[in-house]
Structure formats: structure tokens, C-alpha cells
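Customer escalation, tier 2.

The customer says the design service returned an amino acid string that "doesn't look like it belongs to this structure." They asked us to rerun it and document both sides in this ticket. The original C-alpha cells are below, unchanged.
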């Protein structure tokens, strides 16, 4: 199984692929003048990756609401809800992994910025247990991360810019991968654009935008002149998730479209000049004879609580059952955990990054979806670091019960000590405990041991030779003495 999707073809007709796993870690910037095909590109990216990853779309023009018809996205019309309700929905979205489109077209610009800021901040501030991977697509990003305040208040610009900066600069550790699209690079805040490592540059004419595009693509200014000549729907692509050298891409077809469709030529109605003058210059009261406008067919907005219940029940919110049953899943989980621990090396990635790696390895072994959610993976990974790969092994039951008073981030170092005590092995050294704790500071290891002693889960002893042993009272066992 692959995590790559096709967004189109190059000049030779070969498919141009985007590695979605790499995209989650490196983010994407799309740039092009109005009419260059940015929305079509975003739609292609969303459609192709809909089955692979959760998607959250910030849609200022209501262009992407049709994704709900084909792919089951939940559409939230921001004009129907207040700030508190929008924030609660964002928290539910992260919890239930629902793919949504936040439609802002019913709001004025300043209200759009404040609503987007509230929504993105709530996504960013979700509890650690809900840091699942998600693509966050922001169309017309120059509106939400402008270089200058323009016609909006400083407060609205500050809130919106801070939320966009958090998304692009710090969102990766929380599983949020920003995909931002803009008409004008010169109008987009540099600290937001600079965090993207993948680029898709469409047609642009202004020298200042071409200069910034050339800098981002690593091209000379004369080479960047070709950006002026790009046809609609063609983009220059570059980045670790796409290709290592700039390549021209013709974006492929899509299944959905905007509700309004594409505007084409429409001749004006044929009418006698006198008739048009009578219609345009009707006297007072004569307009009452005109037929009334038909009532709006839009359904009434859902109450916030009902929409949040729909988010929790949406099919995309809860992953389908894995293709294999539990008895078959467990050997795969054990094998994948062994591989991850063996490949760790000296560095210790974040748990959310390791969870993404866990999902990829499970798919490579035949599981359509990871059999563990993030909290369960965190517990199993802590056990795996201590060499306890099989959670069903009865030998580890007493150790897990002894660890119950500890915070979850201390589980791995405690289990490392507990296993050494159970097997009569030497006490783990500071380096091993630090690695299991996710730190490189000896001081933090000492504070960790002191804290566990205060809770009564361990008893540490140091002999006159400076060798340390650690006992686990609930197990009635102790490690052998060893150099710290």
C-alpha cells in the first residue's frame, strides 16, 4: 500500500505524485493569480487524499462545500454559529477525526478573520490525546495572514495572523499539516509562507511575486520568467513530498465542482430598446407589479448541539474496523513496534510522529487502518521501549498495575526499571532512562527518580562505590546494582 496520490502529469505524460505522509510533515504553499487554477488544484488534492487523512478546509468563498456530496465532509456555515460554538465544534472535530468544510462566505472580511482564528486556535489547542494527523487547507491565505492590516482592525489581524503562524510553525507536532493557497505572495506574511517546504507555483505576472516565487523555488530570476507563461491549470512543483527539482505539472481532473460552476459567455437578452427603457426607468410604485422573488431554498441552520452530535456520528469521524480481526492484528502490532524501537537510534521523535510511522508500517503489512488509537499506541510504545512487546503476556500485569499512580510520560522509564527488576538485570543507567523519558538532561532524570520515589513506586539505593539499584516495592523486587 502506498500513501502517495497523483495530482496530474508532467510534460512527458508521467504521473506527478504527492507523498501524503511527507506532506503532513513538510506542509504546502500554492500560489497563483486569480484564474490560474488554484482552487482546482486544491480540489484535486482533497479528493485524492480524502480516504487517507482527515481534512479540514477553511473556505472563504464557499467553493468546497460540494465535497460533502461525494466524500461525506461536514459543512459548517460559520454565519449560523457564535464564537463559543465554533470553538466547541473544532474540539469535537479533532476528537472524532471528522473531515469538515468551514464555509465563511456569509461573513464580512473582519468576521471571517476572527472566526477562522477562533477555529484554528481551537484545533491547535486540542488535548494531546486528540493530536491525530489532519490536512488543514486554507484558501485565500493572504486574507488570514496579511502583511498589513488594511481595512480590518489590528485586533482581527493579530488574532488571525497568530492562528495562521501557529498552524504553519508549530502545527506539525500536533498533527496539523497546513496547506495554504494565495493569489499574491507579496501580500502573505513571510513567517507563514516560509514554513512551507513544498511549493506549487501557478501563473503570476507581477515582478515582486515572481521574485519571491523564484527565491522559494531556488531559481534564477530569468528562469522564473516562465511563471508568466504558465497556462491555466499548470503549476511548477517542488518539495520533498513532490520532487527534488522544479517540474511543470498539469493538474488532473476532479469529480466535484463549485456550486456556481465555471462562468462562461452569455449573450444579453434580445429586447426592443423601448421595452428595456420601460423596465429600467419604471415610475414610482410600478415595481410592485414585478413578480416577487422566489423564497430561498436553503435549509434552516442546524442548532450547534445537533451539528456537534452529527460530527460525532459522521462516518468519517470513526475509522472503520481494520481488515483483519484482533487475533491477526496483534502479531502485526508486535512486529511493527519491534521495528520502530529498533529504528529509533539516538534521537527520540515525538509520539505523534511515531504514531504516523506506526500507521504507515501497519498499512504496509496489510492493515487498512491502524488497530490502535493514539492513547493506546502511547501505552504500547512505552511498554515496547522496556522490551514488553506483547501486552497480553501475564508477566507484565503486576508491573502495569504498579505504574498506575504515574503520569503517562513516566510509564516508559518506570517499565524499564520494572523489567530489569523482574529479570534480575543491572539497573538502567541515566542515558537509558533519559532516552525512555524523551530527554537528554541528566538533571531531569534525577528529578524523575526523586518524583517516583516520593510517590512510593520505587526505592533507589546508591552504595559506597557509587553504584545504583532501584527496587519496586509493589513487585517486591530490585534491580542489580550498576553504575548510573
Amino acid at each position: 500500500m502506498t500513501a502517495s496520490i497523483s495530482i496530474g502529469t508532467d510534460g512527458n505524460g508521467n504521473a506527478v505524485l504527492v507523498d501524503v505522509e511527507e506532506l503532513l510533515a513538510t506542509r504546502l504553499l500554492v500560489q497563483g493569480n486569480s484564474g490560474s487554477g488554484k482552487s482546482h488544484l486544491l480540489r484535486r488534492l482533497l479528493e485524492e487524499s480524502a480516504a487517507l487523512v482527515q481534512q479540514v478546509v477553511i473556505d472563504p468563498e464557499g467553493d468546497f462545500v460540494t465535497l460533502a456530496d461525494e466524500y461525506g465532509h461536514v459543512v459548517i456555515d460559520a454565519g449560523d454559529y457564535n464564537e463559543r460554538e465554533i470553538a466547541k465544534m473544532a474540539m469535537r472535530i479533532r476528537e472524532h477525526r471528522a473531515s469538515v468544510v468551514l464555509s465563511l462566505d456569509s461573513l464580512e472580511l473582519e468576521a471571517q478573520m476572527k472566526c477562522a482564528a477562533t477555529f484554528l486556535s481551537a484545533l491547535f489547542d486540542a488535548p494531546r490525546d486528540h493530536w491525530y494527523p489532519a490536512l488543514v487547507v486554507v484558501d485565500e491565505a493572504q486574507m488570514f495572514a496579511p502583511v498589513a492590516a488594511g481595512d480590518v482592525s489590528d485586533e482581527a489581524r493579530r488574532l488571525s495572523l497568530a492562528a495562521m503562524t501557529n498552524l504553519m510553525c508549530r502545527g506539525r507536532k500536533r498533527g496539523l499539516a497546513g496547506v495554504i493557497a494565495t493569489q499574491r505572495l507579496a501580500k502573505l506574511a513571510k513567517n507563514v509562507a516560509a514554513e512551507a517546504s513544498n511549493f506549487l507555483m501557478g501563473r503570476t505576472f507581477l515582478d515582486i511575486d515572481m521574485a519571491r516565487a523564484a527565491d522559494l523555488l531556488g531559481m534564477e530570476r530569468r528562469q522564473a520568467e516562465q511563471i508568466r507563461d504558465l497556462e491555466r491549470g499548470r503549476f511548477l512543483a517542488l518539495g520533498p513530498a513532490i520532487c527534488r527539482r522544479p517540474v511543470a505539472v498539469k493538474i488532473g481532473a476532479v469529480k466535484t465542482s463549485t456550486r456556481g460552476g465555471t462562468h462562461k459567455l452569455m449573450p444579453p437578452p434580445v429586447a426592443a430598446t423601448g421595452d428595456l427603457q420601460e423596465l429600467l426607468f419604471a415610475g414610482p410604485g410600478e415595481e410592485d407589479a414585478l413578480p416577487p422573488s422566489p423564497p430561498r431554498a436553503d435549509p434552516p441552520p442546524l442548532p450547534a448541539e445537533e451539528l456537534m452530535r452529527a460530527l460525532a456520528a459522521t462516518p468519517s469521524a470513526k475509522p472503520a474496523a481494520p481488515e483483519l480481526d484482533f487475533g491477526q492484528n496483534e502479531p502485526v502490532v508486535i512486529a511493527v513496534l519491534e521495528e520502530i524501537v529498533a529504528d529509533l537510534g539516538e534521537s527520540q521523535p515525538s509520539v505523534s510522529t511515531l504514531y504516523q510511522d506506526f500507521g504507515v508500517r501497519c498499512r504496509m503489512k496489510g492493515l487498512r487502518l491502524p488497530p490502535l488509537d493514539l492513547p493506546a499506541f502511547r501505552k504500547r510504545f512505552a511498554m515496547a521501549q522496556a522490551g514488553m512487546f506483547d501486552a497480553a503476556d501475564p508477566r507484565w500485569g503486576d508491573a502495569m498495575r504498579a505504574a498506575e499512580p504515574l503520569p503517562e510520560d513516566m510509564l516508559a522509564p518506570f517499565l524499564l526499571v520494572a523489567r530489569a527488576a523482574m529479570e534480575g538485570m543491572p539497573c538502567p543507567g541515566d542515558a537509558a532512562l533519559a532516552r525512555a523519558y524523551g530527554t537528554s538532561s541528566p538533571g531531569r532524570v534525577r528529578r524523575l527518580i526523586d518524583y517516583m520515589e516520593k510517590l512510593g513506586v520505587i526505592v533507589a539505593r546508591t552504595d559506597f562505590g557509587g553504584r545504583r539499584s532501584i527496587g519496586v516495592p509493589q513487585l517486591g523486587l530490585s534491580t542489580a546494582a550498576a553504575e548510573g
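Tier 2 assessment: The sequence is consistent with the input. The longest helix spans residues 154-170. The longest strand covers residues 243-251. Sent an explanation to the customer and offered a walkthrough call.
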